Amino acid sequence: xxxxxxxxxxxxxxxxxxxxxxxxxxxxxxxxxxxxxxxxxxxxxxxxxxxxxxxxxxxxxxxxxxxxxxxxxxxxxxxxxxxxxxxxxxxxxxxxxxxxxxxxxxxxxxxxxxxxxxxxxxxxxxxxxxxxxxxxxxxxxxxxxxxxxxxxxxxxxxxxxxxxxxxxxxxxxxxxxxxxxxxxxxxxxxxxxxxxxxxxxxxxxxxxxxxxxxxxxxxxxxxxxxxxxxxxxxxxxxxxxxxxxxxxxxxxxxxxxxxx
Length: 260
Description:
The protein is mainly α. It has helices at 3-53, 61-81, 85-103, 116-138, 144-175, 179-192, 200-259. It folds into 2 domains: 12-106, no CATH class; 112-229, Serine Threonine Protein Phosphatase 5, Tetratricopeptide repeat, CATH 1.25.40. The chain contains 7 helices and no strands. The radius of gyration is 37 Å and the shape is rod-shaped. The chain starts with a helix and ends with a helix. The chain crosses the membrane at residues 6-25. Keywords: Membrane, Transmembrane, Transmembrane helix. Residues 224-244 are annotated as: Disordered.
């Protein structure tokens, strides 16, 4: 076998090897791209769930804006990997919603904590969001100060959600005229906040519930006082009527005796 033939065979074999390596690298790149797309789509669903399912009273404005910004960033990464008109439209809609929310001064309506299953679901969202914050910090998409602040808030919200449930029951009892039950429920709401009562975040809520308890107690005392005054007046009226009746009887008897 001549050297030319050997050289040609080596080139062919080398070409096959290079082509196989190229195909392998191309497949690896395709799989890596698919992996990134799957990961980003999972993050997309995750952040959308936080935005949609965490009740507004547990989602401060700056936290919600950060979630909007993360959503937009994820859309941008997806569009680099797989340009798509639907994704572009969704990204545009989210950006518009974020701008409107940022400019709005209207307070979002709180969601009543009226169901224990809802409370459990919200708590699960809090725990998931804590993990997401740590992951985002590792990915350098949020700074450590914000992670610390949001984590403290989530710890407070973990207790506040129970307190809000009892406050809901207290308000329901108050509107039904069950004042004693209403007071018990608001006091239970305060006891739910006991583990975090020293935190700055809890102070305004504790003060609010304490004021409500005092207002209900004052209202009950006023009602009791009015009831006692009403009873006294009724008693006086009854006494005056008895006196008048007795006078009438005496007068009638005197007139009869006088006729005899």
